[in-house]
Amino acid sequence: MAAKTDPTEIVDVEPLPDDTASQARRVVAAYATDADECRVFLSMLGIGPSKPEA
Predict the structure, then answer these.
(1) How many domains is the chain built from?
(2) By the 8 A CB rule, do 41 and 48 touch?
């Protein structure tokens, strides 16, 4: 059964700060068994891939 979402709650969501997203990427990478699983976990969290540093 899919979780029901309330559209009014989504408005309250703010983007993650870069340092929080970076920490989340490290944790996900540590627990994922392969790259595909890592991508799925990041997607579930709403976090995209990191941007390459210049």
Answers:
(1) 1
(2) no
Residue 34 domain boundaries: 19-48
Mean pLDDT of 4-15: 64
Contact 28, 19 (CB under 8 A): no
* Count of positions (residues) in the chain: 54
Per-residue confidence (pLDDT) for residue 33, from 0 to 100: 95
- Residue 11 domain-assigned? no
Contact assessment for residue 29 and residue 43, using Cβ atoms and an 8 Å cutoff? no
pLDDT at 29 over 80: yes
Distance CA 51, CA 43 (A): 15
The pLDDT assigned to 3 comes to 64
